[in-house]
């Protein structure tokens, strides 16, 4: 488990499937995630979900996001396409429970996940793709230290690619006192 200020990131469990299914069938959430809502029945989703939990892929780590205030699952986050050779992975997050939007839970989840990635997994770079139209997500990622580096199009949608490098993350976590010169500079 990874504990932030507002959220707890924990391993996914089978009992998370129903909330995940609700979020994956929600049209607004699907639009923000640049996908289409799921159309197949929950029983089919549950079988797929159970198999994914039993046989996880080594190139992806998924977490449920729980509110520390009320121990309720409010979303999911993950890092995936992990490349230990390149020292990088892509980050994804969704606060599916709309009652928790605008309360800093997404920012806390991203910061908690970055702490884990850079301190435990020891990657050098974390990147993501967000819709150009999703200003709320972009603002969150900027507050977490991500910087835009490219634009792209997929399926008629425009994306902004953002990244944070380990050295920039470390600098944000351990700023130099005023007047002190960084020895690396």
Description:
With 185 residues, the protein is α+β, with helices and mostly antiparallel strands. Helix content is 33%, strand content 31%. It is built from six helices and eight strands. The chain has helices spanning 17-24, 27-32, 42-54, 105-121, 135-143, 166-173; strands at residues 2-3, 7-11, 60-67, 73-83, 88-95, 125-131, 147-154, 157-165. Strands 1-2-3-4-5-6-8-7 form an eight-stranded mixed β-sheet. The N and C termini lie far apart (36 Å). The mean pLDDT is 92.
By DSSP (H or I, 4+ residues per run), the number of helices equals 6
Strand arrangement in the largest pleated sheet = 1-2-3-4-5-6-8-7
Taken from the alpha-carbon principal axes, the silhouette is globular
Strand content: 25-35%
Radius of gyration: 17 Å
- Largest sheet properties: 8 strands, mixed
User: Kindly, what is the distance between the CA atoms of the first and last residues, rounded to a whole number of angstroms?
Assistant: 36 Å
Q: Quick one: how many beta strands?
A: 8
Low-confidence stretches: none
Helix content: 25-40%
SSE arrangement, N to C: EEHHHEEEHEHEEH
Question: Which structural class do you get from the secondary structure elements?
Answer: alpha+beta
Would you tell me the overall average pLDDT?
A: 92
């Amino acid at each position: 488990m990874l504990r932030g200020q507002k959220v707890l990131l924990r391993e996914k469990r089978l009992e998370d499937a129903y909330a995940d299914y609700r979020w994956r069938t929600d049209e607004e959430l699907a639009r923000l995630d640049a996908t289409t809502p799921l159309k197949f029945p929950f029983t089919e989703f549950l079988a797929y979900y159970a198999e994914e939990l039993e046989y996880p892929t080594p190139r992806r780590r998924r977490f449920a996001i729980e509110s520390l205030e009320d121990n309720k699952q409010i979303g999911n986050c993950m890092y995936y396409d992990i490349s230990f050779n390149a020292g990088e992975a892509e980050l994804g997050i969704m606060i599916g429970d709309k009652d928790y939007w605008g309360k800093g839970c997404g920012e806390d989840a991203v910061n908690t996940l970055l702490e884990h990635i850079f301190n435990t997994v020891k990657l050098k770079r974390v990147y993501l793709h967000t819709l150009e139209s999703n200003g709320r997500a972009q603002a969150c990622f900027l507050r977490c230290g991500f910087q835009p580096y490219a634009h792209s199009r997929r399926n008629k949608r425009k994306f902004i690619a953002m990244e944070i490098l380990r050295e920039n993350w470390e600098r944000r976590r351990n700023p130099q006192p005023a007047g002190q010169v960084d020895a690396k500079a």
